[in-house]
Amino acid sequence: MQYGYFDDARKEYVITTESTPYPWINYLGTQDYFSLISNTGGGYSFYKDAKLRRITRFRYNNVPLDLGGGRYYYIYDDKDVWSPGFAPVKKKLDRYECRHGMGYTKITGSRNNIETEITFFVPIDFNGEVHKVVVKNTGDSDKNITLFSFVEWCLWNAQDDQTNFQRNFNTGEVEIEGSTIYHKTEYKERRNHYAFFSVNAPVTGFDSDRESFLGTYNGFDNPEAVLEGKSRNSVADGWSPIASHSLDISLKPGETKELVFILGYVENALEDKWESKNVINKTKAHKMLEEFATAEKADEALKRLTDYWDDLLSRYTLVSGEDKLNRMVNIWNQYQCMVTFNLSRSASYFESGIGRGMGFRDSNQDLLGFLHQIPDRARERIIDLASTQLEDGGAYHQYQPLTKRGNDEIGGNFNDDPLWLILAVVAYVKETGDYSILKVSTPFDNDESKAAPLAEHLKRSFDHVINNLGPHGLPLIGRADWNDCLNLNCFSMEPGESFQTSTSKDGRVAESVMIAGMFVYIGKEYAELMKKSGSVEESIRAEKEISRMEKAVMEHGYDGEWFLRAYDDFGKKVGSKECEEGKIFIESQGLCIMGGLGLSDGKAIQALDAVEERLGTKYGLVLNNPAFTKYYVEYGEISTYPAGYKENAGIFCHNNAWIMCAEAVAGRGDKAFDYYTRIAPAYTEEYSEIHRMEPYVYSQMVAGKDAKRFGEAKNSWLTGTASWNFVAITQYILGIKPDYDGILVDPAIPKAWDTYQVTRRFRGDTYKITVKNPEHVSKGVKSLLVDGKEAASAVIPYAGDGKVHEVTVTMG
């Protein structure tokens, strides 16, 4: 069953029923100010940090679903009260439509001959959210209505806002100026920021106190002020401050009224904190309001935003015989990659914005999916990430985006983390040719006195593995590797101990074959980068360490038919045919084969065949099999989940991409693309009633074959699935891969494909690449012509002339 459709020409997903299986959301914002918005107007806004600079309040896990707060509008029409976005009133609409586009959402609702269209967006370089509201009389008689707006202020720190009521109920403060309601709670303390909600027209009334607007025991669906058609003109003093306007609107048949609401954030210099008597400095707010004084100015800003996204998405485009593939590659996958870059795993409908900041491994992997769009911001992010690295090469697992400091509460010792920094830097240099980043002086643990060139950070990342090897010569897993729930050491901790300080009676010798595969795969990239950048001795040293690891993996990490997952703290195999449950895991199969392990002797193919046989389902590949049916203290959290969910034999979409890449490396393009179609959102749209999540973006996981709700997804939007699937389809399957000296062309496609075209912008040049497959092979390049001339290899040489170059690739 479908709940809408793709409008590819407008780069939109159009939702045609308000009752989607779960709230289907979009993200607004490109730089510092961000908003989450559902298809009925739910969600919230924040500046830079969803925990420390939360602007509007939202209640997760609310009942009814998605009515925990939002940017709400109400129509009072002769005592008939309804909402254009359906929520929160939930009155039946004559027509409903939500269009989620690139950085904007447009919701239209009609009832009783009143049509209201609201376009929500965050303009480029603007710390605020614009709501353009268009109200039209579609009937044949005059209409007199009252339009009410509503947002609820969060008291900045989202965690404190939800816990410290004894204080917060006494601190709420607002200031009213014309049609603008200013949220200045705690402005007179140590903070220098405030928020505001305004409309570009005179108002009939306003409210800034929640209880006055709603009534003590009413919800968002039946606010007393709206039910009576009249604002209270309340001024908040403590308790829960809000911002609501009311405007009386008279419309003749066919007449339209346009309004612009602004939800904005201002941060003043500390010396400009006060004007007098705690009256806030409104200078910046006034300038922001002037920017959108008319509907025409809002339209111009929306056009600039649309042009911005058109430009970003033009940097890699595909023309193939499959519409679903085109829309994923050209629109939605790239769009999701940009959202994950901006927010990591911090704020979604499954992440509260409080518990997590920017992930170290997460953000490094996210870089892989958007580098071709905004390499300058990728460079900044790499330096931010490296600046949180510890002196021994380890890393904080997360950092707060506002302070850019490592999160002490989470700490580190996730021993895969350091390697992802190497992969991010390699990808950046290949995309840009900018070797100078390796010389940038970068602190350890944000301590400038301990700064070193970024190249030294990469060396310590590499050495962090070889300095932490276990009894089989394989990397120690630490607290966990990529799979945070596989806790092979933590079972022996005493109550109250932290991983960093405890001492295991068994020596903490759990080893990760997955990290070993990563080390080989990423280590080879590191060695090549060192060679290309002139550090030949370091390259040779790295190659020797990689060779030792390859031998250790093939001697101790291969289980006869597939790669082991790990050794636990007792030295027992994990992910082995010898295990009662969890005999095979997906991660080590993908990363070991991506590193080239087992390719020369058929063991890689044997492992990939085992993946399909034991892990394959129609909705994707499960993470492990058989599922754990009981708790294993030596495995930790992974065995606490019910069978088929999350890491316990769920379809973890992130690592499905590693198998796609591995199949491509092995030359099996049909199987690589088959796996791609099993989880790509556009291909799941037809069974949305089962999948439940948005059919335009990837989810983190899908319930596996052992689950009671097989095929149901969770944790949409903020997942490494986005970047890795973009890498899998564009670089490994379509085979257009940036390299140090140009673009490497190495497809691994279904044999039935005849041809496809990719337009790739690369370091200022544009390459129009046509791939032909007359012999219907999966892999192999017979010839490569650049502007009619035969190339010396499968690498398109970088021209550096800023021109358009025609490339013809013939497979065979």
Automatic annotation (TrEMBL):
List this protein's GO terms for biological process.
carbohydrate metabolic process
Q: Which domain of life is it from?
A: Bacteria
Give the matching CDD domains: GH94N_CBP_like
**Could you confirm whether the keyword ATP-binding appears in this record?**
no
A Pfam match: Glyco_hydro_94
What residues does the Glycosyl hydrolase 94 supersandwich domain cover?
11-288
Gene Ontology terms, MF aspect: carbohydrate binding; glycosyltransferase activity
Is-annotated flag, keyword Glycosyltransferase? yes
Domain named Glycosyl hydrolase 94 catalytic is located at 308-735
**Know the name of this protein?**
Cellobiose phosphorylase
**Which species is this UniProt entry from?**
Anaerocolumna jejuensis DSM 15929
